[in-house]
Write a structure and sequence with these properties.
binds nicotinamide-adenine-dinucleotide; 38% helix; alpha/beta; 11 helices; Rossmann fold; seven-stranded parallel beta sheet; single chain
Length: 313
């Protein structure tokens, strides 16, 4: 396969860094635009710089003044934590909506024949919660909180810019990602860190909320599949095979760390606007040959044992 020139945004974040690593390994050229917020990985920031096929721009996407030459843009850059969005949503509107509008405008300013394919990394959360069944890509977007509202807004911008200005796009909507070296604000790393320090994990409500878990490497494989075999201007849901209640995730972490269940978690005030259950249908991407490959239980052990606090500030 020939080498591609890929502009990645947010490539120091949890999912983006797995994608950048995979592209660099297979010989693609990568330009990574990342503003290095609190969730950016400081260890991979240094490691990637050693690669000859890598260039880094420490910049907010909203401040990107020109679009470097590229064949594909994969936009991971976003504020990604729902609780932060509930506390203060300004940064979410700026990065997740204005950032996308700004990137789309940079693409539009290219001649039509020079416009890169725009791949927007969206989320299963844009559909809101799903009490029964599964959402398909054709379902209405009914986001429940400021984070998912900004992600849904970005999806609207991408589709409308594509139609008006002829920008080739894909929107990819993965479910909850887990994997190595995620910033410890999300359920798995945060709860593991607390239990390792002898503190109970903090459980929203009664722990009955259901999430579908997908390994970040499986997400990266899904993006690669869409780039290779996906239809242009199509949306793809990407789900893991595993739906778990939050309390079940905490129970698995406690078992690995040998913390008695009575000491492993405590209930805390529920998240306002909490989504009860996420579930998406991903037949469209499975028809292209993609399947999730990682096993949650065995990956969880590695994730917990490899927690590395030097990666983040
Ligand atoms: N983590 C998940 O479970 C999950 C699930 C579905 C979809 N997503 C989406 O996938 C994408 C990546 O998520 P993640 O978990 O890797 O996020 P993350 O918070 O770990 O990383 C985000 C990265 O983007 C950078 N960034 C943020 N705003 C920026 C800006 N304005 N300009 C440049 N860089 C900026 C940060 O510095 C960071 O490196 C996001 O768009 C998120 O909405 C995440």
């Amino acid at each position: 396969m020939s080498s591609r020139l890929i502009l990645v945004t947010g490539g120091l974040g949890f999912i983006g860094k797995h994608f950048v690593a995979s592209c660099l390994d297979q010989g693609d050229y990568v330009i990574n635009v990342d503003r290095v917020n609190y969730a950016a990985d400081r260890v991979v920031k240094s490691a990637f710089k050693e690669k000859p096929n890598y260039r880094f721009m420490e910049l907010d996407v909203c401040d990107l003044e020109y679009l470097p030459e590229c064949d594909i843009i994969v936009n991971f850059a976003a504020e990604s934590h729902v609780d932060n969005a509930i506390a203060d949503n300004y940064k979410f509107c700026r990065s997740n909506i204005i950032g996308v509008q700004h990137l789309l405008e940079l693409v539009r300013n290219k001649q039509e024949y020079e416009r890169p394919r725009f791949v927007q990394i969206s989320s299963d959360e844009v559909y809101g919660d799903c009490l029964n069944g599964k959402f398909t890509e054709n379902d209405l977007l009914r986001p429940s909180n400021p984070y998912s509202a900004t992600k849904a807004s970005a999806d609207m911008l991408v589709q409308s810019w594509s139609r008006t200005y002829k920008i080739p796009f894909n929107i990819i909507r993965p479910s909850n990602n887990y994997g190595a070296h995620q910033y410890p604000e999300k359920l798995i790393p945060k709860s593991s860190w607390r239990m390792k320090r002898g503190l109970p994990a903090l459980m929203h409500g009664d722990g009955s909320y259901v999430r579908s878990w997908l390994h970040a490497e499986d997400t990266v494989a899904a993006i690669a599949t869409v780039l290779e075999a996906g239809e242009i201007d199509a949306i793809y849901n990407v789900s893991g095979d595993l739906h778990l209640r939050n309390v079940e995730v905490l129970r698995k972490i406690a078992a690995i760390l040998e913390v008695p269940e009575a000491e492993a978690w405590m209930p805390v005030t529920d998240r306002s606007g909490q989504d009860v259950r996420y579930s998406i249908d991903d037949q469209r991407i499975r028809a292209l040959g993609w399947r999730p490959k990682r096993d949650f239980d065995s990956e969880l052990k590695t994730i917990i044992h490899e927690i590395d606090f030097q990666r983040f500030i």
